[in-house]
Structures are given as structure tokens and as C-alpha cells.
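Thread: adenosine-5'-diphosphate complex, take 2
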Amino acid sequence: MIELDNLTVRFGDVEAVKAVSFRVSAGCAFGLVGESGSGKSTVLRAIAGLNAAWSGEVRIGGVPQTSKRSKDFYRQVQMVFQDPYGSLHPRQTIDRSLSEPLLVHGLVGIEGRITRALAEVALPNAVRFRYPHQLSGGQRQRVAIARALIAEPEVLLLDEPTSALDVSVQAEVLNLLSELRETRNLTYIMVGHNLAAVAHLCGTIGVMRNGALLETVGADDLCAGHVLHEYTRRLRELSVEIDAAPAG
Ligand code: ADP
Ligand code: MG
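Output below.
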């Protein structure tokens, strides 16, 4: 479903992403981890068509992409950001935010689709007439997920979708994403800094460092510590320590 060959992204003289190649089969979830600034978001943005300054090959469902994406592409591939305000307009009701993609793609049955989308992310229908600031962080992220899914995409690009949430609701949102992938047969790329969370959702994980893909490892191998690079081992140990640390 997703094929990257030598994806390279430059910002001026800086190579933020260096010849990254990987593949994600339809219905599978691929995780991207690595320290801040390693290029994870830049990879997602290039795939999503939010960044024109890239080279290499990007194919979605076998279709080679250029810097200009088709309208179908924007229906097929959706992105979810760390901060749901990135996709929800603060002065628009949830109803309006959810209607927008349906209007853009000319889909009918708006009323029913919004009701179903909210039910799918386990939110009450009354949420429709609220504004983003009237919801909790977890509810806002559920709305952002509903909005990403409402026009029935095939691919979700998730950029640290739970990092801004309270620890207590992170697992709920991860479980929701996991269920949605199964019921809708979605293909995911998920960026995250918590290795355990990424390994929970993704069968295969790519480790990025300084813009390059250092190694690709199966979630089971990662959990068992069967990794190639010392850097991956340290990243894993660090996230285990954070998880084990007492809260507060
Ligand atoms: P990550 O998501 O892994 O934290 P990013 O992909 O956001 O990393 O950033 C990778 C590198 O690219 C960083 O050095 C960052 O400063 C740089 N970068 C990202 N976006 C831009 C931009 N719009 N303009 C200039 N530099 C950028
Ligand atoms: Mg990022």
C-alpha cells in the first residue's frame, strides 16, 4: 500500500530525511521511532503531500506520487497530528469540522455519516454542537480521528497521536486506533516516542536517526531486545525506564 524508495527531504542545505526506503502492506501498521528531530514527521508530511521539496519515489497503492496530489489521494490518505487543533478549527463546531471533508469529496448522507463517525470513536452525538475547547484532550483527539476517517480513507498517517494526552487516556486512544484498523482494514504509519505504545500497535518498527532509517525491526524482536544497533537498544532501554518511573 505504501512504498518509499530513497525518500530525501531537504530544508535549504539541511537533509532532514536521507534516502529512506520502506514498504507497508495493506492492512498493516508500521511504526517510526527515534529521537526528536530525527525526521519522523518530515517523512509523514512528504507522504501526505504536505511538503513539496522531496525527491525519491513515493507510491501509494502502487500509484507513483508527484508533488501535486490528486483529489482522490487526499481522500485515500489522511493524517492525524499530535495536537488535534492541527485539524480542528477552534471557531468551528465539531459538526462543521466533520461535514467539511464530506462536502469536499461530494459525499451524500452527511447526517448519518457524522452520527456513525462519532459512534465509531465512542463519542456521544451531542458532541456535534460543541467547539473543540469544550472537549477534553482525549475527546478532541477522538474527533480528529473521526474527521480523518469520515471520508473513508485507506491510509492513516499518525504523528504522535497520543503524546499530548494524559497518560490515563493514551491507552484508550491507542486501543481505539487498533480496533479501527482491524474493522476498516486500514494501513497505518504511526510515529511515536513511546516504544511500548508503538510496538503495541505496529508489527514492524523503523528506527530513525539523523534523518536516516537505521534499522527495521519486528515488534516482538524489539520487545525481546533482539535489535541490530546499540542506538535502538538505548532507545528501548530509555522507554522502559520512563514507563517504570513512578508517576508525577
Ligand atoms: P521529528 O518528527 O523526528 O522530531 P522532524 O521531521 O520534525 O523530526 O524534523 C527533522 C529535521 O528537519 C529537524 O532538524 C527540523 O529542525 C527540520 N525541519 C522540520 N521541518 C522544517 C521546516 N519546515 N523548515 C526547516 N527545517 C525543518
Ligand atoms: Mg515530529
